[in-house]
Amino acid sequence: MRSGTAMYGLGLEDQELQERARGFADELIPFEVEAELNDGRLDPALEAAQQARAIELGLYATNLPVEVGGRGCTTLQQVLVQEQAGRVTNALGWCMHTPPAWWPAVATEHQLETWVKPSARGQRHECYAITEEEAGSDVSAIVATARRVGDDYRLTGDKWHVTSYNEADYVLFQAVLSDGPHAGAQALFVADLPTPGISVVRSPAYTHTIGHHHPIVRFDDVAVPTANLIGGEGDGMTFVYEWFRFERLMVAARCLGAAERLVEESTAFARARHVGGVPLIDRQLVAAMLADSVAELFAARAMTYETARSFDAGADPKVLHARCSMVKLYASEMANRVADRAVQIFGGRGYMRENVAERFFRELRVERIWEGASEIQRLIVADQLAKRGLSALV
Ligand SMILES: Cc1cc2nc3c(=O)[nH]c(=O)nc-3n(C[C@H](O)[C@H](O)[C@H](O)COP(=O)(O)OP(=O)(O)OC[C@H]3O[C@@H](n4cnc5c(N)ncnc54)[C@H](O)[C@@H]3O)c2cc1C
After folding, report:
1. Cα torsion angle, 252, 52, 19, 267, sign
2. CA 103 to CA 111: how far, in whole Å?
3. pLDDT in tens, the chain (394 residues)
4. For ligand 1, atom 24: residue with the closest CA
5. 62 lines ligand 1 (CB under 6 A)
6. Do 21 and 32 contact (CB within 8 A), yes or no?
7. pTM value?
8. Ligand 1 pocket, 228 CB below 6 A?
9. Closest CA to 300 of 267, 327, 273
10. Is the CB of 161 within 6 Å of ligand 1?
């Protein structure tokens, strides 16, 4: 085992899983530059082999219960795996995928067999269509509709930034019910891809270079059976909030991994690079940058592991919601500062796309935006502070 891991109170099983994930991340790292220079893509056979290896190593669907084919890991273990996924650029670590874990508890038998279990096996892949042109931070402002027609629902609306649409074979669609006893409330639906009426409006280019695209997707009176409603009509945004909590914690975990890699790589460079006959690491202004990064990484890791443990201890979901906001806010902003310092330490090399710091500098920016931007996380934390008091949160 690597020295230092024991300081977080990790058990032997946790450390073994962490090492397995670290070893797999180390296998992926050599492919980063090829992906970067090839629009984020690797040979499809290689991508399939990487997913198969993630499954074989027990690093896939760590968040799903064993009964549906997942690994049934604790939340802390899920964090340990995603932390290692975060050490890899160009989203190559996403092959350690986490399918929708909020679903099994509310899925019908049909939904379990059609979508959940095949997803746990890596045979089916989801994407989420929630955000709209005028509804991002404020999910309650969505205007996409679901209308009941006989035994179908008809889904209509344009969705933005639908991540992994090009990889997915089903889409989760959040809509406002336009009629019936729950008219005006939100509900979540699943639609297979392709289904007539679902089309790509356009697929914009984004700052990072990854194989997963984020197109604007149009749903034009798309007919899905009533069996594709997830949960009940009155369930509103329950699943979205549950997914946000999970994803915010996992964003924090991946930011820890990114920061660790950046500190390790920039430290190695600062040791080897001599300027004016002196190793960079002996220049105090450079040493101070590294020290700040290490201190911030330590703080972020401690709070992220602690939050994962409070999930496993069954803490109140509202308290967890605030804690996930705190770790997502702090870890994503920390990782961006660490990436900025790493670019500075690498100097001109840090501006080259073949350099890990350059790639992370671009890739980490979105961690402060998606799954709720930093401002939204601050609002959630302040709201819970006002309602519950400091002692409930920290
Ligand atoms: C690469 C990428 C992938 C994504 N993938 C998906 C996906 O798969 N599925 C999906 O549904 N969505 C996805 N999103 C959407 C993402 O969740 C939203 O972009 C995010 O929630 C912010 O919404 P917005 O872009 O509409 O910004 P806006 O809501 O317009 O906010 C703009 C700015 O205003 C700030 N702001 C907003 N409200 C307040 C307030 N009350 N007080 C203070 N400041 C405020 C925000 O913090 C932000 O800085 C993705 C986005 C990106 C960039």
Report:
1. negative
2. 9
3. 565 556 799 999 999 999 999 999 999 999 999 999 999 999 999 999 999 999 999 999 999 999 999 999 999 999 999 999 999 999 999 999 999 999 999 999 999 999 999 999 999 999 999 999 999 999 999 999 999 999 999 999 999 999 999 999 999 999 999 999 999 999 999 999 999 999 999 999 999 999 999 999 999 999 999 999 999 998 878 888 889 999 999 999 999 999 999 999 999 999 999 999 999 999 999 999 999 999 999 999 999 999 999 999 999 999 999 999 999 999 999 999 999 999 999 999 999 999 999 999 999 999 999 999 999 999 999 999 999 999 999 9
4. 136
5. no
6. no
7. 0.98
8. no
9. 327
10. yes
Instruction: Give residue 139 CA to ligand 1 midpoint distance, Å.
Output: 9
Residue showing tokens 């309650």: 140
**CA atoms of 198 and 368, how far apart (whole Å):** 30
At 86, list the tokens.
């975060």
Q: Which of 128, 142, 161 to mutate to test the pocket of ligand 1 (most atoms within 8 A of CB)?
A: 161
Report the separation in Å between the CA atom of 5 and the middle of ligand 1, taken as the mean of its atom positions: 35
Does any ligand 1 atom lie closer than 6 A to the CB of residue 240? no
